[in-house]
């Protein structure tokens, strides 16, 4: 009913707008006055065990996998430890080297996804400690895992995950900061700087959800496309993957998320004046690189839409349309940059009268293999 949707047309839009509060919930009580992330009391895994780990292995499906990839980039950067990432459906049949010094991190909103559960069973059989990042207390996954970091997103009704993606990315960020501190792998000042930066996220995300009407105008330009390419690099490669997944799920428009540097190795052949390219070019170490990847796409006449920081004249000059977002620490930028892409997918599906909350062929939770 519309009462349950609090006046929003769809649960998906309501859940997109809940994100500033969800981020506050995910952060609550987990960062102390010194800006140190404190997860010890929740995880109850001895810090000696965490210090002895030689590898991190992250798994999940769909949107949960994409959120795990945000964690992967942060852990690689901050924790000085090899980090592997694999889809749970591949993990369960792959031949993987893992032992008691491998830390498995399983991402699942529901905690009931069959492939993720099976992957975790295999990891446990190999003796790895398992930390779940999950939204549902008492789920199958939570019972299997040695520890759970709850995302506290509240119930998500829309089949297309939005607030649970963002809360998983925030939780994975907290876990990266915690592991880095425990392992003394990064300068404490840098970890504290990122942790302090998380406090700006609810307001930054609030600014972006309130650009919904502007994003809707861009949606009108993109909705006739047969195919859309989403480009990101480094910490925003998962943002591109998630933007593409959202669009596919609810609008049924073909989309691909690509690491922008890979364009010239094949996908650039797809481009023409009818194939929009959506690039994430917010500030950070790969900004100049991705701007030049976008310029190459523009040279093939692709319509260009960029997710860029307020005041970015270079992006404005390059793009046909800009989806503006506030500046935050680069390592936190995936949490903000995905929001306009959620809104874009939403508006395209809504304008075209699609069943936004219950897209065809999809189940909220995939409990079969
Ligand atoms: C997200 O929009 C999808 N509906 C889907 O990819 C989902 O994220 C995936 O099935 C994993 O679900 P889980 O987080 O409950 O394990």
Written description of the protein model:
The longest helix has 20 residues, at 163-182. α2 runs antiparallel to α11 (201-209) and α12 (212-222) crosses α16. The mean pLDDT is 96. The strands form 2 sheets. The chain has a 5-stranded parallel sheet, sandwiched between helices. It has a 5-stranded parallel sheet with strand order 7-6-8-9-10. It is built from 16 helices and 10 strands. α15 (313-318) links the parallel β9 and β10. The chain is α/β, with parallel strands linked by helices and 369 residues long.
Specify the number of helices.
16
Overall residue-averaged pLDDT value: 96
- Main sheet attributes: strand count, strand direction, barrel closure: 5 strands, parallel
- N-to-C span: 32 Å
Low-confidence segments, ≥5 residues, pLDDT <50?
none
The helicity comes to 40-55%
Bound molecules: 2-deoxy-2-amino glucitol-6-phosphate
Approximately what portion of the residues adopt beta-strand conformation?
A: 5-15%
Q: What sequence of helices (H) and strands (E) makes up the elements?
A: HHHHEHEHEHEHEHHHHEHEEHEHEH
Question: What is the number of E strands?
Answer: 10
Shape: globular
Radius of gyration: 20 Å
Strands of the widest sheet, in order across it, are: 2-1-3-4-5
Based on secondary structure, the structural category is alpha/beta
């Amino acid at each position: 009913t519309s009462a349950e949707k609090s006046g929003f047309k769809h649960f998906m839009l309501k859940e997109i707008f809940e994100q500033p509060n969800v981020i506050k919930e995910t952060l609550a009580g987990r960062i102390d006055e010194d800006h140190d992330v404190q997860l010890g009391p929740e995880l109850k895994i001895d810090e000696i065990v965490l210090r002895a780990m030689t590898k991190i292995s992250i798994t999940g499906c769909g949107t949960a996998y994409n959120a795990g990839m945000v964690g992967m980039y942060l852990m690689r950067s901050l924790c000085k430890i090899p980090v592997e990432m694999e889809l749970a459906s591949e993990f369960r049949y792959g031949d993987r080297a893992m032992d008691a010094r491998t830390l498995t991190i399983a991402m699942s909103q529901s905690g009931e996804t069959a492939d993720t559960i099976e992957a975790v069973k295999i990891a446990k059989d190999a003796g790895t400690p398992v930390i779940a990042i999950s939204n549902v207390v008492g789920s199958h996954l939570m019972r299997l895992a040695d520890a759970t970091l709850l995302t506290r997103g509240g119930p998500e009704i829309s089949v297309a995950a939005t607030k649970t993606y963002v809360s998983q990315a925030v939780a994975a960020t907290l876990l990266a900061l915690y592991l880095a501190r425990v392992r003394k792998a990064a300068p404490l000042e840098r970890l504290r700087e990122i942790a302090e930066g998380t406090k700006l996220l609810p307001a930054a995300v609030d600014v972006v959800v309130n650009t919904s009407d502007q994003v809707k105008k861009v949606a009108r330009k993109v909705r006739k496309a047969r195919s859309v390419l989403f480009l990101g690099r480094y910490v925003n490669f998962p943002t591109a993957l998630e933007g593409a997944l959202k669009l596919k799920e609810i609008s049924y428009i073909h989309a691909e998320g690509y690491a922008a540097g890979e364009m010239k190795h094949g996908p650039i052949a797809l481009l023409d004046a009818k194939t929009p390219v959506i690039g994430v070019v917010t500030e950070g170490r790969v900004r100049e690189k991705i701007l030049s990847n976008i310029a190459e796409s523009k040279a093939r006449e692709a319509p260009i839409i960029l997710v860029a920081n307020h005041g970015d004249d270079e992006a404005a000059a390059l793009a046909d349309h800009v989806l503006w977002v506030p500046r935050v620490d680069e390592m936190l930028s995936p949490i903000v940059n995905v929001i306009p892409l959620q809104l874009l997918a939403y508006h395209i599906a809504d304008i075209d009268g699609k069943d936004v909350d219950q897209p065809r062929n999809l189940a909220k939770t995939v409990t079969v293999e």
